[in-house]
Write a structure and sequence with these properties.
The complex is a heterodimer of chains A (about 240) and B (about 290). By secondary structure, chain A is of the alpha+beta class. Chain A has helices spanning about 25-35, 90, 120-125, 145-150, 160-165, 185-190, 230-244, and strands at about 10-15, 45, 55, 60-65, 75-80, 100, 110, 130, 140, 170-175, 205-210. Chain B is built from eleven helices and one strand, in the order H-H-H-H-H-H-H-E-H-H-H-H. The N and C termini of chain B lie close together (about 10 Å). Classes of the chains: A alpha+beta (about 240), B mainly alpha (about 290). Chains A and B meet through strand 3, strand 4, strand 5, helix 2 and helix 3 of A and helix 3, helix 7, strand 1 and helix 8 of B.
């Protein structure tokens, strides 16, 4: 049913640290690997040796920010995936009932057996979290690795989403954002975790930790120019050229 | 947004078909027998043809039947349910007109009202999307319904009403274009809010996540047409409103000639304006790619 649950028991989601992410795209690759071999149809690629395109559930953009306060510009790597919104517009627009939000943990999923590939959910999502698989014709999205996090066949340390498990920088955190005492909730409170496009009212569960402010170059210690007026041959050249 | 031909044809054709059926349901023109059959054949043809065209837009057609299930929350599902109910309600009225020379007046009016509600639900598929500011406002349903009523009026040779409808629709379309431009310019959502980095300063993308194409860019960051927008608006305006009004007035004495001519011009204009409706619409996800 595409009616959203009034509340969920847990709010499982990710916290992504924009201060720590190094933009290695490791999460992109591990996500593609896990989700091609597990839940649902594979994430297909087309024309891999020509003009390649393919389905990904996670993409890393790189941005440059020029601070309003002046000082050095910052480069920020920005992983973008499903935010498992509390008020998920992608779920309610679904005409077939394929999209749903789980009452027990808040994960937004697509039942591929019901999806007719109309693409309206991708239109409704402001975050570009949903991509229609070109080969299978069904909508693909982040499952929060629902087939890992509850999987008792995996060692306990692997029962987290593939992107979190693989991140070499420790920029990705997984947990219950509905529990104020969870590690992720504390991290969000401490670092001022933020919502993306809060003006659209989607109430994302995933939070992004803003990059820490950089210091600015202290110019008081820098060298003063030693000569303001040219002398000797260069001085003569300078005057001669000015007279021309 | 990507102006997919199947979706443009779907909205224009089903709008015209339901518009024709809506006018026929009012009992004026009072057609019976063979002429009623031709009219209803065309009405059902355009309406059903449009709906079938929308099925071609689906990537997984075998599940299309499931689209009737989620009418509680989904406008697309409501549209599917309403179009079937409408076509079934209009059918006995049409059969009475064609074969039995009887007019079931109340049923006809109910059918006409349902035609309007069906097109309204089509428009809400677009108007509901907060991600597309150009669509997410009252102009979208107003335009869809007025286009439907005008097309139906031209189809049924209602020349007097059609002229006023076309004038009103022309004004509304220009206002909607202007309003859409303002909404796109004054949009609160930009690369800064999309990334949350706007609170630090000015944001610029220096490296996209992929150098090739993907579904998001093809579907939601369509850019090809934007440089020709003004020319296309002019073409749409002249064809959809100006030429039909002139044709109706020039052939005022022979509406059976003027109205079909006006309808052909009008439809070409509607196709252009509907193409613009998609091509001009900017989706929130374009902010991530700086497009």
């Amino acid at each position: 049913m595409t009616t959203l649950p009034t509340q969920t028991d847990k709010k499982l989601g990710l916290v992504i640290d924009l201060d720590t992410c190094v933009g290695c795209h490791g999460c992109v690759t591990s996500c593609k690997g896990w989700n091609t071999q597990n839940y649902g149809v594979p994430l297909s690629d087309k024309d891999a040796y020509g003009d390649p395109s393919g389905t990904f559930l996670n993409r890393v953009h790189s941005y440059e920010v020029q601070p309003d306060t002046g000082g050095a510009a910052q480069t920020i790597h920005f992983p973008r995936s499903c935010l498992h919104c509390e008020d998920a517009p992608c779920v309610t627009v679904c005409p077939t009932g394929a999209s749903y939000k789980r009452e027990e943990d808040g994960i937004v999923l697509v039942n591929e057996n019901d999806c007719m590939g109309c693409g309206l959910c991708a239109w409704a999502c402001p975050y570009g979290a949903r991509e229609l698989d070109a080969l299978a014709g069904v909508m693909k999205k982040c499952t929060l690795c629902v087939d890992r996090i509850y999987n008792e066949n995996l060692p306990e340390e692997d029962r987290i989403p593939a992107c979190v498990r693989t991140c070499p920088a420790g920029a990705r955190h997984f947990g219950d954002l509905g529990d104020p005492n969870s590690d992720v909730s504390k991290l969000v409170a401490e670092r001022g975790g933020m919502d993306l496009m809060p003006e659209l009212g989607t109430k994302p569960v995933n939070k992004y930790l803003p990059p820490r402010p950089k210091d600015t170059l202290d110019c008081s210690q820098s060298l003063e120019p030693v000569a303001t007026e040219a002398k000797g041959f260069l001085g003569w050249l300078d005057k001669a050229l000015e007279k021309l | 947004m990507h102006p997919a031909p199947s979706v443009i044809f779907f909205t224009v054709s089903s709008g015209l078909g339901f518009g024709l059926l809506a006018w026929l349901g009012t009992g004026n023109p009072a057609v019976n027998g063979l002429s009623a059959f031709v009219m209803y054949f065309l009405g059902y043809g355009f309406a059903v043809g449009g709906l079938l065209s929308s099925v071609f837009h689906l990537a997984n057609k075998k599940n299309a039947i499931k689209a009737f299930s989620q009418w509680r929350t989904s406008w697309l599902s409501r549209e599917a349910v309403l179009s079937v109910i409408t076509l079934l309600t209009v059918a006995p009225y049409a059969i009475g007109r064609i074969f039995f020379d009887t007019t079931l007046e109340t049923l006809g009016l109910i059918g006409s009202a349902l035609c309007v509600v069906t097109v309204l639900s089509t428009s809400m598929i677009y108007a509901q999307l907060k991600t597309v500011p150009r669509w997410n406002n009252g102009f979208t349903p107003l335009l869809f319904v007025l286009y439907m009523i005008s097309g139906g009026a031209l189809f049924t040779d209602r020349v007097g009403i059609a002229v006023y409808l076309l004038i009103a629709l022309g004004i509304l379309q220009v206002l909607a274009w202007r309003d859409g431009d303002n909404r796109t310019v004054n949009n609160k959502t930009d690369m800064g809010t999309a990334t949350g980095l706007g609170r630090i300063g000015k944001v610029r993308q220096y490296e996209p996540p992929h150098t090739g194409q993907n579904y998001l860019l093809k579907e939601m960051a369509y850019q090809v047409a934007r440089k020709h927008v003004l020319k296309l608006r002019l073409i749409a305006f002249v064809a959809a409103f100006l030429l039909p009004i002139l044709a109706l007035m020039a052939f005022a004495d022979t509406p059976s000639f003027g109205a079909p001519m006006a309808l052909v011009f009008h439809l070409l204009g509607v196709l252009a304006s509907r193409w613009l409706f998609f091509a001009e619409a900017r989706h929130a996800v374009a902010n991530y790619y700086g497009r």
